[in-house]
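We read letters as residues; the fold follows as tokens. Both lines appear below.
***
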Amino acid sequence: MMEASTPSTRPCRGLPELSYPFHDRDVLVTACGRICLRHKKINLSTVLAGQTIGNKEIDDGLWLISFMHHDLGYIDLEQRSLRPLDNPFGPRLSPMS
């Protein structure tokens, strides 16, 4: 019987160390997909668990959330919710662009 695939010879190194120099804070997303921002817990997504995201306050209580070079949406601290952008993988909006 013939193998359908063979193991890669290249090692998987994962993502590089992420930092967000144009943001106010770098925050690690918990295993359950949350971040803590100004003592408030905000649910993002378990997809981002263990990853570092960037937070930038753009208005009083309104924070831009970014992952790598993509702006994901805005957190309103009063409502404790993430308002996603229509297409976070479209044109970049943050100063990182």
Q: What stands out?
A: Residues 25-84 form one domain. The two ends are 50 Å apart (CA to CA). The mean pLDDT is 85.
